[in-house]
Specification:
Blueprint lengths: L5 H48 L19 H19 L1
């Protein structure tokens, strides 16, 4: 007794191909989301880094803490404190 399994094999092949396509699509979506999320998380660091890079070591000005993201306000305040202490030291 033999059974005709060609239709079942075709169905298994289609299901396997659908699973592979779904996995590849999911991986691509995860990658795009991860890139978007990492850029979003790094943007505050880039902002404060550019402000620090623009500072002139001879003319130190405090950082505007209003435009700094919430997470970096303590760092900006510490930098401003350091700038003010440096000004006091250089005027002595």
């Amino acid at each position: 007794m033999t059974a005709n399994v060609t239709q079942q094999k075709r169905m298994e092949k289609r299901v396997f191909q659908a699973i592979i396509i779904m996995v590849i699509t999911s991986m691509a979506m995860i990658l795009v989301y991860a890139l978007f999320l990492s850029n979003m998380l790094l943007s505050p660091i880039k902002v404060i880094s550019s402000k620090l890079a623009k500072m002139n070591e001879n003319i130190l000005l405090p950082i505007d803490t209003e435009n700094v993201p919430f997470e970096f306000k303590p760092l900006a305040k510490s930098i401003n404190l350091l700038v003010n202490q440096n000004k006091k030291f250089s005027t002595l």
